[in-house]
Amino acid sequence: MKLFNARLIVFIFALLLGVGFSVPSLLETKGPKITLGLDLRGGLNMLLGVQTDEALKNKYLSLASALEYNAKKQNILLKDIKSSLEGVSFELLDEDEAKKLDALLVELQDHSQFEIKKEAEFYSVKLTPLEQEELRKNTILQVIGIIRNRLDQFGLAEPIVIQQGREEISVQLPGIKTLEEERRAKDLISRSAHLQMMAVDEEHNKDAMKMTDLEAQKLGSVLLSDVEMGGKILLKAIPILDGEMLTDAKVVYDQNNQPVVSFTLDAQGAKIFGDFSGANVGKRMAIVLDNKVYSAPVIRERIGGGSGQISGNFSVAQASDLAIALRSGAMSAPIQVLEKRIIGPSLGKDSIKTSIIALIGGFILVMGFMVLYYSMAGVIACMALVVNLFLIVAVMAIFGATLTLPGMAGIVLTVGIAVDANIIINERIREVLREGEGIAKAIHLGYINASRAIFDSNITSLIASVLLYAYGTGAIKGFALTTGIGILASIITAIIGTQGIYQALLPKLTQTKSLYFWFGVKNKRA
User: What positions belong to coiled-coil segments (predicted)?
Assistant: First the structure.
């Protein structure tokens, strides 16, 4: 008796939990709510490709920059320091400095594993294959984190950013309605925000306009577009410092009341910035953002404090977006928009309307069948179905799950699964009643016999849902999520909940003279 009473308490608790946490989603009141997916709410969907080869290049470029800076500090003479996708190569001019160089390379590894090859005075350094693969994986995770951070600062509610495939990222932005919002979101997401300080190659820059990229590369330099002056400008290929040392960025106004982006460097960046500017008074240093030169002023004196400005005829919105991108951190690899789709809000509303009609229609048909065929036992089964639906909505709201159109299909499917469980239970009870057993024993044996089959089928379906969610993407995940929650809810309501109701009604059931009224059974043997 106590066990069955406990089951009734569990059922009532499930009902209260389901109703309580479903109300905010159903009536748009305060509280945890289900997030509507892009297909139901409308918005922007983008598939991004991450160019992880560039992350590897940037890693080697940073290594080359650090190697050049620290070698000068330790008076180690190096020549022709070059970086590429294959690693960093250079020449050691003084063989007596080999031990100091080896110690420096160990110091610069920074928890990474390098393969170092020596051929006389020539060195080549690159990451091990395992480290390269780890770098590519971490690059994807870093890009996902930066995109989420940028979208949060941009003010977009409930963005969905997930990895899809080996080097692809799916970004869903519900609520994007205008072309301007779409453009700003796309620019903010796809911008690398890779800030660098680079020295102008004063010796060869006069020939920059007629120089090719290959010719610049042979000089140990790089040709970049000059946003401020137009044309091309020749810079030393190894940067002085990069955006990894940036700590803050914000919009300020210059003397002409034009918006510019002010940035601040950390202590290490400020020291490098100050040392370089102090040693190169009268020369030019370029501020480079995403491989475009925004300014290349002449250094008049040593620049202390570790701060600077980026100007470029920005609008307030453009300056604000750039500051957000810089604060969020530079992408360690550039990204490319592979696919872009706009889903209108009207399409989302139509999808919701159609899905709700299908759900209500199917629910009414199922309830009608259950009541007509199983009488009051069918009514009890329908009560379990209602609680089952409330539980699905409540659990999704509690965990902030996203409801998609395939997810709605999963809910409709779980109605069928829950009905199937109740049909098995009612048929087992009717079988025992037809054998002439009493109602109490029929209910007890009916649930024991039915539970095995229900658990077997539901556990199998649950495993399938877990696997679909773990290895599926997008729409498949939405379907698997609601199906899995629905299966667990149906076990609670069908096996535990309805059994508790029957136990509460047992005194009345044992006195009834009409098994047809309660179970739809027309005959009973004595």
Answer: none
